Each structure stands twice: as C-alpha cells, then as structure tokens.
Amino acid sequence: MGLAIQANPDFAPQPWQVTLLMWAIIFFSVFINTVVSRFLPMIESGIMILHIVAFFAILIPLVYLAPHRSASDVFTTFLNEGAWPTDGLSFLVGITGPVFAFGGADGAVHMSEEIINAPMGVPRAMVSSILLNGMMGLGMIVALLFCIGDIDEVLSPPTGYPFMAIFQQGVGDNAGALTRSAIVGILAILATISWVASGSRMLWSFARDRGVPGWQYISKVDRGTSIPVNAIAVTTFIAVLLSLINIGSSVAFNDVVSLVVVGLWSSYLIGNLLFLWRRVTGGVQEPSDLSERDLSKRLEWGPWRIPEPLGTINNIFGCAFMVVILFFSWWPPSNSPTPQTMNFSIVMEAGVLLFAVIYYFIWGSRDYHGPVVEV
Questions:
Q1: What is the DSSP string of 61-103?
Q2: SS3 (DSSP) at 227
Q3: What is the pTM (predicted TM-score) of this model?
Q4: Cα separation, 5 vs 181, whole angstroms
Q5: Tens of pLDDT, residues 323-350
Q6: Rounded CA separation 328/94 (Å)
Q7: Gap between the Cα atoms of 111 and 101, Å rounded
Q8: What distance in Å separates the CA atoms of residue 96 and residue 329, rounded to the nearest whole number?
Q9: Contact assessment for residue 349 and residue 259, using Cβ atoms and an 8 Å cutoff
C-alpha cells in the first residue's frame, strides 16, 4: 500500500484492501511451495541473483544523484525520537527493529531434511547469508544515512516507510523513486516464499514429533511430491485468519505481529542456553562409529563447529546478547506510550506460553516424548 500512496498521494487504503493484499501474497507463496515446488531451488537461486542485482541498482543511482550529508552528520549526530532519558537507552530500545533482519538466517535449518549433505550445507548457507547480507546491509545503511534529506519528513512519511521518502528526496523524481521502492516491495513479496517453506517445515517437524494439536493430520507428507502439503495448508489458514484482525483493528494486528521478534529470539535463546549447558557439562561427544550410536540419548559433534574455548565464549556472548534483545523487545517504541503505541508483545507471548503449558499437561504429554530420531 505504501507504493500506491507514493504513486497517488490522495489514495487512502482501507483495512480490507490491506487484508486482501496479504491474502494475495500468501497464496502466491503457497502456489510456489506446492504447485511448482519442484522448481523451488531454481526460483530461490533466481531471487538471490535479483537480490544482489537490486542492491546495486538502488545503491549506485541513489549515491550518485542524492545530495550528501557530511561525515560528522552521519557518524556523530544522534537522535532520541522516543524521548527516552538517555541516548543509550534509546539505542537499546531501537535495536530491536534491526535485529529482525536476523530472522531469516536460520531458514536453512528448517529445510535441512531436504538439503544434500546438511551437516555441512546448512551451516555454510547460514554463515554465507549473514556475511553477504551483512556487508550489503551495512553498505546500504551508510549510503542511506549520507543521502537523507529532511529527517522529519523521513521519520513521518505519508507512505509509512522511511526508505521511500529517502528515495524520493534523493532521486528527486517520483517515477525513479517509485521504481526503486517497487524493487524493495517485490523482494519483500518474494521473501514470503521462504517464510512459507521454512514455517511449514517447522510445523511439520514438530507434528512428526507429536508436539502440536492435530499432529496426526499435519505430519502427513504428499507421496507424489514429498511436500508437507497439510502443514503448508495449516500454516496458510492461520496466516489468513490472523490477517482478518487487521480489518477490525490495525492496532490489534500490530500487537500480534510484534510477537514475531519476541517469539524468534525466545526460541533462539532457549536453544542456545541448552547447547551452552551441554557444552560446559560435556554433554556433546566426539563422533563414534555408526553401529555404536544411540542418537536418542547422546549428542555428537558434527563436521562444522567452533573449537574450544572459542565455542563456549561464542555461546556465552550469544546468550547474553539475546537476553538483552529479548528484554528490550518488550518495551514500547517511545516513552509515555498511548494504547495505540504500547508494545503488548509480552502479553501475547505470555498467552502463547500459557496455552502451550496447558496443552502439554492436559493433552500433549500423552503423545509427545521428545524428538523423533530417524537414521
């Protein structure tokens, strides 16, 4: 909808139009993940190429055409737009937005059962994606900071997206700015293909372990395509239902969406804490002969790992960082929030955890006995 407003400033999108657009994007991603799923690797490779080409297609004209700020403006000017008591607190509250970019780094993990030589391929994909996107992201951020014009206009754009205002000010031409904004929008839409793929695999994997309601249905895999169609259908159905909230209240919908960052980082923290505990207690052992393995009772090192003591130091730093991120992800974006700007993610997370605990003790404990190990 931001693109429509940028093209026509008089356009006022209605909540039902936003919901219909969500549905169109969801069903497009489902189509790619089901009907033409055999082409998914090639499609994802094409998206990666488009991603890299689009980076230069946006960056080069913007840096060339836009007026530039001084280095002192970029690196020594700090804004506390949330009215927090200190700039340090403002930084910690604001960092929860940028860390959302790490949400897709673990996507390869959820597809590991469909990846050749997963013990090496998955970590390589994760590290290479972080390095590639980290360098590109840093370059783009620095370029945007140098090319920002009117900061007040950028922070309160009519489209709702500051980068569109930067493109508009930098390029000085609505058609050129709209083209660059459209590129970002297309890439965002294409990213949902991976989100549907990884999200459905997570649901299917947990259903295979008998850890979710309806696991008998969700854990089934289509014999013709080896695709967890039922898991994709359930994931799609939930997304469609959640999008309906936007019609009644965009504030309530944003409260639900805010659970994404909290949920992701909570899951990361739990996994890293357990792995750190295994490290320091000697619970991860060297690989043994295949005939002697009992993977249901022991953990073994894979071919990709950080040697000690750097591995433990890395895990400790990661856990400490995630605790900080998780704590500040519950804070509102600005001081003295209103009901419309309040961050209710902690309420949403508490509700999800309460439901999970009740489900486990009443029903789940009868069927769930830990992960299913397949050799």
A1: HHHHHS----HHHHHH----TT--SSHHHHHHHHTTTGGGGGG
A2: coil
A3: 0.84
A4: 11
A5: 998 888 888 888 888 877 788 888 888 8
A6: 9
A7: 19
A8: 6
A9: yes
